[in-house]
Design brief:
rod-shaped
Amino acid sequence: MLSECLHGVMEVWPPVDPCDFVLRKFSLTRLVAGIRRTPEVIGRLMWKPFHSRFQDQLGNLSSHRTNLFEEISIWHVQESNREMARNAAMQNDFRRYRDLNTEEMENAREERRLAQEERRLMALDRRQAADDRKQTQALLAEIRRALKQLEFERMGKEVAFLAAFR
């Protein structure tokens, strides 16, 4: 049974890529557990030259390197997209804050203008009330004078009328 497992493991040797190499190395030593024979190992090493034996691993390393750089590139693009989205959100927040602040400042300016206009109109109203009061008092005094004049004239006519009958 051990020889069947060993034979199955030896069929896929050499590994296809470095990650697989490490995993198979640990599983091979666990399965064989010290039963490796030196002639078998030497035979496998002599069967294929070093350069051709590890050329596949170097090719696999190169493809892993290419994949890694592609993934890093994708990660950079994703990160820059996230950063651009964060910047856009911050700009939108800043615009909203600026617009609200501008609107608030315009409201405060309008409020000050209206308060100033209110004070001006109240002062005008007080002045007009004082002027109207003076004008009303002057008119009232003139009417009273005219009434006294009329009364005086009427009294004078009555006195003259009564004096004419006497």
